[in-house]
Amino acid sequence: MTALPGAGPRIPGLHSQTAAPVPPQQPPSALREITCVTLCKVGQETVQDIVARTMDIFHLLRATQLPNGVTQNHVVYQERYNKLQEHLRQLTLLFKKLRLLYDKCGEMCGVSDVSVTELIPFVGEEPFRPSDLPNVGGLANKECQEILKKLHQKNHELKHIMDQLRNLIWDINSMLAMRN
């Protein structure tokens, strides 16, 4: 009994060696629908990539020496320039991707653009008051007031700690200046 070259063991149910390959089935997790949460996760990863690329650019720029009249290898400068251009191109693509994710997430979640003044209270502006909320019930309003009171107390504590740190740094700098 002679074996044909390239013929291996027969697989039951497979009649021809030239049968088309069966495409692998995708796991159920790959078939799930895209939600605002998944878009936000992808956006978070994109922001992390942007930060990493930016750090790479800064490291590349830090390692680059200015010519200062010294003749250096032109090939090295050209290589670094090309690497910098590639990083900037990738950074541009990442920002475009982030913008698309932001727009799609806003479209899916129904969130309109919020102005900066709504997010960050400026000095002299009236801060948020629980009375600005529609009257949902006494319990929700009471909880909101308690949370705002705790927030005010924590802010006061943080300000006190920052003042202490500022004074400590001032003292350290004064002592270092006197020592020199």
UniProtKB/TrEMBL annotation:
UniProt KW keywords: Activator, Nucleus, Transcription, Transcription regulation
Region entry Disordered, spans: 1-27
Gene Ontology MF term list: transcription coregulator activity
GO CC list: mediator complex
Localization per Swiss-Prot or TrEMBL: Nucleus
A biological process from GO: positive regulation of DNA-templated transcription
Domain of life: Eukaryota
Protein's job: Component of the Mediator complex, a coactivator involved in the regulated transcription of nearly all RNA polymerase II-dependent genes. Mediator functions as a bridge to convey information from gene-specific regulatory proteins to the basal RNA polymerase II transcription machinery. Mediator is recruited to promoters by direct interactions with regulatory proteins and serves as a scaffold for the assembly of a functional preinitiation complex with RNA polymerase II and the general transcription factors.
Family statement: Belongs to the Mediator complex subunit 30 family.
Name of protein: Mediator of RNA polymerase II transcription subunit 30
